[in-house]
Specification:
It is a single chain. By secondary structure, this protein is mainly beta. The protein has one domain: YVTN repeat-like/Quinoprotein amine dehydrogenase (Methylamine Dehydrogenase, Chain H). 9% of the residues lie in helices and 40% in strands. The strands form 7 sheets. The chain has a 4-stranded antiparallel beta sheet with strand order 1-28-27-26, with no helix packed on it. It has a 4-stranded antiparallel beta sheet with strand order 2-3-4-5, with no helix packed on it. The N and C termini lie far apart (53 Å). The N terminus is likely disordered.
Length: 387
Amino acid sequence: MILDFAAPDLTQARSRSLSRLRQTSILLAALLALVPNTVQAEASKQHLPAETYVGSISWAPGGKKLVVGYRKHVAAIMDAVSGDVLMELDPRKESVVDRRFTIKADTNMLRDNWCPVSWSPDGKYVAVCHYLNVFIFDATSGKLVKMRSSERGKDFDPERRWNPILPRDAAGNTGSDGWREVLSYVTGLVWSKDSKKLAIADANGVHVVDIGSGKELYTYEPMRHKTYSVSWSSDGSKLAAISFNFSEKFKSLHIWNAETGKTIRELKGIKHAVWSPDSKYLAIDRHHGIEIYDPVSDKVRNTIETGDDFPVFYWSPDGKRLAVSDSADIVVIVDASSGKRVTSYRAEKGKEFEDVFPAVFSWSPDGRSIALGLEDYTVGFWKPSVK
């Protein structure tokens, strides 16, 4: 069954969220003086090749490079030391992309799609979402090696394998025999620990795909609603995803066995969830705070109060801390056990909040640096002062 959802008006939702964030930022700015080690932090910044927002960031395993997903221009691989853009990963420049994939999509969703990216744990590949499509690039050469494409309302490939890579002729046609797969707005990508599988989130659920053959191993569908994020535990045993029920206006967290697809837990009212590096806990947002949740025992280890309705957070690689974005211009490092604030990054003064606040951020593999996607079209590199 094909589930077809109307695209939400993300522009209006974004404006409402920013308005609330600006209000909370006034209070939080006054409280900053009470937070130990809070500074007006400077981050080295690098402008992107085009004026477009950062939608996602994924580091290479060695921490020397990272891939940045653009809202419109797909992705770029950057040098983590110099900040230089080493190459762009833009499937629109490849000879294999059938432009019919994008023109049939809803224009609002095309404009606001965040373009997920994910670097494989073995360092060989970069997975990039471009609207309704998933592309696998060679991380060294930038060559497109695999693609998985969509067209709403049709499913031409019953075995659900990789699309054939075909050259484009002088007229711009690929000569494709119509192999497509319905993914309907790809919203999340994550690799398995062994880099042999890829979990793809979309409106139809979460598709777990074999990288070698492209065959879909299974689709997790119990949520039956739009799925917009997916997280794979580092031990490879479990997956977690957030879904949104458009009719009843609530979000749910789904946790399941990555091998069998069997549901382990389902929690309502959760908007964000990230596995701890040891795979024992999920950091989840609930009740104006962050809970460190054990999905096996169904118990909460501890709670970190944030007082914010829209926290975004990620674990440090050692699992000792969380980086939390809890206002329009602040990223705070907190101790995961005690909840104590350690230090924070605050955006530059003298600019409108919506122009500079970190829209997305990611820890480097060694935990010494955080890459920030800033809304002045730059990627910032911040080194927190953490003892």
